[in-house]
Each structure stands twice: as structure tokens, then as C-alpha cells.
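Annotated sample (chain length 125).
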Amino acid sequence: MAICNSCGTQNADNTAFCTQCGASLQATPVVAEAPRQLATGQLVFSIINIVLGCCGLGGILGIIALIMTIMAKSAATDADSDKKLHIAKILNIIAIIGISIGLIVSILYMLFGGFAMIMGLLSGM
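Output written by the structure step:
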């Protein structure tokens, strides 16, 4: 006996449709959606920004990008997941640019600020 999934009526085995409600008695295949993969590249990039940025703006943006990357895996749709990954990528790029500018400014200050200090000491002799 084939039991209707819609109304629960028992039907003969060779029946294609329910005699009570007309619903199909054929088993409909359930297509399982493949789980999304975690974007490992964005995840690593976010962690690098957190480490390099420490407590500065780069670190904060890295933390936000890390959260967005993790949230992308559990997004309801592929479009939503792609949007979150895109935002994480932009935040990571901004963070790495900020960290790079800060590093360059620090190096220039050490070079020229230290040079000016030495020149000031020498001129005072």
C-alpha cells in the first residue's frame, strides 16, 4: 500500500496519484544543498591583519573581516555569502593599506627623525 504524503490516505501500490486528494505518490528526490566551504584565503588574510594591526585600525578591520568571513559560511543564499566575502575582502585590503602606510611613516620617521636628532646633537657640540 502506498500512503499519500499529503493527506495520509492508503492507495494501491500501482497508483500514481492519490485517490483522495490527487497528490503524486511518486517519491520526489530530495536534493541536499552542498555545504559552503569556508573561504580559507580570506580567513588567513583577516588573521594576518589582526596580528599586524594589533590594536590599531588594521586590527579592528581584520576582526570585522574575520567575522564576515565566518558568517559567509552560514549565509542563507549564495548571493548573501558572496556579498559577505566581498565585504571581508574590501576590509582586508583597506586594513593592509593602512598597516603599510603606518609602517612606511614609522620607518621614515625613524630614518629622518633620528637623522635630525643626530644633526642637532652634532651642531650643539
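Annotation: The chain has two domains: 1-28, 40-123.
Annotation: The two ends are 108 Å apart (CA to CA).
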